[in-house]
Each structure stands twice: as structure tokens, then as C-alpha cells.
Design goal:
The protein has 317 residues and is an alpha/beta fold. It is built from ten helices and 13 strands. Helix content is 32%, strand content 24%.
Length: 317
Amino acid sequence: MAAPGIAPRILCIGIPVRDLTFRVETVPARGSKANARHLAEICGGNALNAAIAIARLGGRVAFAGPMGDAQETSSGFILDRMTSENIDTSHIVRIPDASTPVSAIIIDATGERTLTIYRDPALGTVELPDADKLLADCRAVLVESRCAAFATSLCTEARRRGIAVIVGVDRAMSLQDSLLTAASHLLFASDQLQETAGIPDDGAALKRLAALTPAFLAATRGPYGTIWLNETGALEQTPAFPVQAVDTLGAGDVFHGAFTLRFAEGGGVRQALRFAAAAAALKCTRPGGGLAAPQRVEVEELLSTSPAATLERAPRL
């Protein structure tokens, strides 16, 4: 455990991605062409975006997970960016002859994104470094839900040591997924929550999953805020901060990173959810995916000038 006054060390586990982002007025129809008005090449991936957010918000962050062969181009590009963001990359495992994932992302005039991605199946065969090395001085682990095959045993060991394990869920999970019970906190997106539970209602879906896992459960709903279950099993919600969104790419990842950091700092879930909502809102006001994550001073200013985010767009529970 970190000494008082020292920023908490957080381990992020995931699969980094090289993102090519195209900004258009509207997403082109099937079989058609469209001219993009802007192109950017950035690094991404759920856990990496979260790691960037954690670093910018004042945390110490290390990254573990697979990347492609040491000779391929994408991994070098991503590693350079991670180093510039003060992310510890010493636990990344290079997979010989494999390719680091690459995605093509189309962002329309409303800030909404559509994407396609290639992930080399060989990356899923990675073996992470020794748990003692990864978890030393660690206050929390943040893991992508897609990493269960190679991360569950480490997450289980982290929980045995009393370390929080936060899973950022951006795709539907099997009800037998090992991370459902290895996690201390599960942060879903609304669509993935409903698909996982098989129930088209966020509140009912959370309650169904609560019967399968002891983890804290929450679901983000964009401008409608975050719905979650408190310690008594009752539904609560944390409202979103109303902003004019120009780019939602990476907003959920920034939310996960900010939540993890604030929780690791000793904030309760209410405080962590509100801190995360502010960080994600600020990210949505600027383009750049996870690289548009805000600095700590920006989040603190938004929190201080918005004592109560509006509930106007949040439906009744």
C-alpha cells in the first residue's frame, strides 16, 4: 500500500490499439464513399485510454498486456505515446509474429463513433508477468472485460491481497465469465449490461447480475448518467454533466480510469462516480479519443463550479 500523500499506483490490463480516426458529417451508407474532413492517428484501447486518464489525473499507472512483434510498426508508435504519458510499460509482453490491433473509427458531426477493429487472435495467448511484480505497491487493478483468459488468475490474486479489481465492460459478457466473480467492481455500458443479463432494462439487469456476483455493479448511459446498486441493493443514479459533445470516443474508458483512481485514493463509490462523470464529460468536449482525457485541475474546477449535475435528462428509476 502506498504511503499517505503518495499517488496510488494502479495497474491497467488490456490490449493496446492503434486508432485511425476519420471525422465526417455523416457515416457513409453501405457501398458508398465519403470524404473525411479530418484524419488523426492515435493510440487507443479501453485499458490504455483509461491509463492515460489516470496518469493525467495524478495517478501512478503501469500497463500489462500483449502487443505485437517487436519489429512491427504499430507497437512502436503506441509505446512512444505511452512513454510520453508517463505510463510504465515494463510489464508489456511482445508476442512474436503477432500484430498489434488496428482500428478504423468514423466520428460523425454529433461526436458519435462507428468503428471496426482487427485483433490478432495470438494476442490472447499471452502469459502475464509474475503477480508479485505486477501487484507490488498496487492499490487497484483496472482490466478490460475481454482479457479474462489471461487476467483472471491475477485478478483473483489481487482480490486475495485486498486490492480492488475494476472491470471496464464494453462488450456483452457470458454469465459464466470468470471476471464476474473475480472483480470487486463491474462498470458496464448500458447496452452491454442489458445484453449480458438478457433483460432490456438497466435496473432489472443490474439486479439480475447482483445474484451472480458480489461485485459493485454500475452502468453508464451517456447523457443520462450512471445507474448503480448501493450496498442495500437499491438503485441509485449519478447524473451526467451536460456538455456539448464533439467526440465520444474513449469517454467510457476515461470514466473507468477516473473512477478507479478516485476510489484508490480513498473516495467512496459516490464520490468516485461523480469524479468519473466530470472527467468523461470534459473528454467529450474535445476530439482525440483517450488522448483528449482531461487534467486533474480541469476536473476539480468542473466539480467545484457544478455542485449538482442536472437530472433533467435522467429517467425515473
